[in-house]
Amino acid sequence: VLINGRYADSISVHDRGLHYGDGLFETLAVKQGQPQLWDWHMERLRAGCDRLRLAPVDPVLLRAEAEEVCAGKSRAVMKIVLTRGPAVRGYRIEAGSAATRILSLAEAADYPLSYYREGVAIRLCQTRLACNPALAGIKHLNRLEQVLARAEWDDEEIVEGLMCDVDGRVIEGIMSNIFLVRQDRIATPPVAACGVAGIMRRRIMEWARDDGLPLEERALSPREIKEADEVFLCNSLIGVWPVRRFEDADWRPGPLTARIGAAVGGCSLMPDAALSGAA
Amino acid sequence: VLINGRYADSISVHDRGLHYGDGLFETLAVKQGQPQLWDWHMERLRAGCDRLRLAPVDPVLLRAEAEEVCAGKSRAVMKIVLTRGPAVRGYRIEAGSAATRILSLAEAADYPLSYYREGVAIRLCQTRLACNPALAGIKHLNRLEQVLARAEWDDEEIVEGLMCDVDGRVIEGIMSNIFLVRQDRIATPPVAACGVAGIMRRRIMEWARDDGLPLEERALSPREIKEADEVFLCNSLIGVWPVRRFEDADWRPGPLTARIGAAVGGCSLMPDAALSGAA
Question: pTM for the complete prediction?
Answer without folding.
Answer: 0.96
